[in-house]
Amino acid sequence: MRIIIKHIITFVITLLAVSVCGGVMTPYDQMPGEYYRHCYDSGNEETYEDVQTEEYPESFDLRSFGIVSDVRNQGETSTCWAISAMESLETQINKASQNRNVLLSPWHLAYFTYTEEQLSDPSEGSQFNCGGFSSNTISTLSKWQGPVYESTVPFGSEKIVDEQLRHNHDYCVQNAYNVHQYVRNNIYYSQEEIKKLVYDKNAVSVYYYANNEYYNEDTAAHYCPEKTVPTHAVLIVGWDDNYSMDKFITKPSQKGAWLIKDSYGTEKGKDGYIWISYDDASLCEAACYFAENKDIYDNNYYYDDYGWIASISTDAMQSSLTGYMSNIFTANSQENISAVSFYTSEPGTAYDIKIYKNITDENNPVSGKPAGYYSGTQEYMGYHTVDLENKIPVEAGEKFSVVVKIVNRTSPYTVPVEAGVMYTRSGNYYIENRLSNQPELQSKRSFISNNGSLWRKISGESYRYFKSRYTYFGMNDDTDEIQEMELGAVCIKAFTENQQG
Q: Could you tell me the pTM of the whole model?
């Protein structure tokens, strides 16, 4: 069990062997230009349904509200993903606070995402050339490894960051819209979906295929007509419906473009900003991050060191839209359970949360006394924190469980898990994460159920997808195959506050 107590924790993360091409991760033994994780170039497009059409202004610019930070310069590093994520979070914090000059550290995020704890001799600087996605960001931040202020770990300051800063965090990241698991393809969003987020004053982290072949330097305008894998992360801060088609090297089918905050300094584009056509076929993802004051909780209980690698079904036929998951934790002291977090794999997901105290059977998360029940629906897929209306007290050494029921609308893969993944792609064999290297794997009290009554422990279990279900992840079953997954834990966290006195 992982317990963060005011920045103190011990755990092990296996550092993946990756190189970088334009800021997106690639295995060393894979040809440049081919990407892994959830960037499957399957040609399948997925967009959200049921988005209500609203009337938005013809142009919109978040800079006019004074909540967008200055343009950064990533230089020769591949930290665009970390910059984009931190800048999305900065905008959200700036709009909610009186201090509108918040600057967070992408350097801290990139370093501790790719550096093992207690590593005596990390490869100097390699952490800043690994690239990354929203799944990396939320995996790190949800463990309270950041975010910290830019002044704490300035960009480019140190190749090896002080280990004592790992669990420093000046904010607690509570929610992340539109982040998704590693094992899936990119998700493409409509103009309406992105405008809704931006108009609510959320800067949106996106990815696209950045190539000078498609970039008009004179007008700072980019348009890629092909749905190819992304190579660069940037930030959408506005739009212009009347942006001329004539400003692009290749004319798109419609006028209009997104206002993009880039990360190559003010010398690029127009003071560091460029335009990307609404028609750009490579533009994908649309993550937004949200945080609260760091003092909102005292302790963070979790098992999923690697974060959300995949989603699994709880029934043997991989067909049910309902799944149950649970973790049993042991309270470190006299505390109050204040909130629970988990992931959802599609929008419009319904959930029920139950808390059980005084667990009597360590293999049965419902063997204790029911202490709280909460339910709701999450509008967006991604990472969610649910504050408990009534805080639940626990004693030092007391075992308690968090049980979450997930009801999806379309996908049977309801339960988010950390996992080691063995897969083939185009005839090549790859391994992501070796959970068997975790010394505490078997001690994780993490469970799934298809009915909420009969539970099975998943840590160390194997799991295979039916190939006929690959379409749920945008994978091509002719060239891609997940050979096997080694399960670690379900992705549930419990946040507590220390009792006073």
A: 0.89
- 326-344 pLDDT, tens per residue? 999 999 999 999 999 999 9
pLDDT tens, 239-274?
A: 999 999 999 999 999 999 999 999 999 999 999 999
Which positions of the chain have pLDDT values less than 70? 1-53, 98-99, 117-125, 425-427, 429-439, 441-442, 471-480, 501
Taking the CA atoms of 200, 201, 203 and 208 in sequence, report the sign of the dihedral they define: positive
Question: What are the distances in angstroms from CA 53 to CA 47, 191, 281, 296?
Answer: 14, 10, 22, 36
Tell me how many degrees the CA angle 490-115-463 measures, rounded to the nearest 5. Answer: 30
Which of the 8 DSSP states describes residue 397? T
CA–CA separation, 53 vs 60, rounded Å? 17
> Are the beta carbons of 181 and 137 closer than 8 angstroms?
no
C-alpha–C-alpha distance, residues 264 and 80, integer Å? 9
Look at residues 438, 456, 208, 496 and name the one whose alpha carbon lies nearest to residue 304: 438
Sheet with 446-449, strands from edge to edge, namely: 369-378, 349-357, 399-407, 322-330, 446-449, 456-457
What span, in angstroms and rounded, lies between the C-alpha atoms of 127 and 78?
Answer: 9
Is the alpha carbon torsion for 32, 425, 414, 306 positive or negative?
negative
Whether residue 373 contacts residue 423, with contact meaning beta carbons closer than 8 Å, is answered with no
**Tokens standing for residue 490:** 């379900």
- In this structure, what token pair is assigned to residue 58? 């013809």
Residue 15: Cβ-neighbour burial (10 angstroms; 0-12, 13-18, 19+): middle
Task: Name the phi and psi angles at 227, rounded to 5.
Answer: -80, 85
φ/ψ (deg, to 5) at 94: -60, -40
